[in-house]
Description:
- Helix content is 16%, strand content 33%.
- It is α+β, with helices and mostly antiparallel strands and 111 residues long.
- The longest helix is centred in the first third of the chain and has 18 residues, at 2-19.
- It is globular.
- The N and C termini lie far apart (42 Å).
Amino acid sequence: MLKFAQGVAATLLAMALVYGAVAWAADTFSTDRIGLQSPFNNGFEVTPHDTNELTNHTRAIYVGGAGNISLTTSGGDLFTMTGVLAGTLYWVRAKIILSTGTTATNLVGLY
């Protein structure tokens, strides 16, 4: 099996040298319009803070550890989502995730 894998690797290297750089993972959706129902292009770890806005407003928040999330929406409303479950995606446009009242952990902002 090792000789086969080495042969495949050598063949791929030879093809790259002959034909130039090979695009292994083309993004066939790069020209599609991005909307609220589109797959996420980016994400970031959320560090709750009572006044600092997130670097980007979210389209959804992934919750790694259960608890509550206090937030300010993109529209300016302030509320707390109580009892959010670990491993769940919540579709909410948030601009601030407050540290006061947020007990959920490992939050990821997606946009």
